Amino acid sequence: MFYVYILYSEKFGKTYTGFTSDLEQRFLSHNVLSNKDWTKRYRPWVLIYSEEYSTKGEAMAREKFLKTGKGRCFIEPF
Predict the structure, then answer these.
(1) Tens of pLDDT along the chain (78 residues)?
(2) In the Cβ-directed half-sphere of 43, how many Cα atoms lie within 13 Å?
(3) Assign residue 10 a region: left if phi > 0, alpha if psi is -120 to 50, beta otherwise?
């Protein structure tokens, strides 16, 4: 399974959208493990939304959409 997820940094008012095959490990990476990522600057992150897909292509397409203007409108209410 593949997941599209949205993280929110309450401290900085930032959102981050990504996709992964291991949501738990990726969340840990964003909050603890990574040392050179853009997301490191805006820790701590909270998972505010996720969707599950059976193929990587579907997840990538959804992530790409969520990073467009219309996709950001979808994210805004969260």
Answers:
(1) 999 999 999 999 999 999 999 999 999 999 998 887 889 999 999 999 999 999 999 999 999 999 999 988 988 877
(2) 14
(3) alpha
Domain CATH code at residue 55: 3.40.1440
Q: Is 18 helix (H, G, I), strand (E, B) or coil?
A: strand
Q: Which domain holds residue 59?
A: 2-75
> How many domains, in total, are found in the chain?
1
Residue 26, H or E segment = helix 23-28
Please tell me the distance from the alpha carbon of residue 10 to that of residue 47, in angstroms, as a whole number: 11
**Closest to 23 measured CA to CA, from 8, 2, 41:** 2
Rounded to two decimals, what is the model's pTM?
Answer: 0.91
C-alpha–C-alpha distance, residues 11 and 32, integer Å: 16
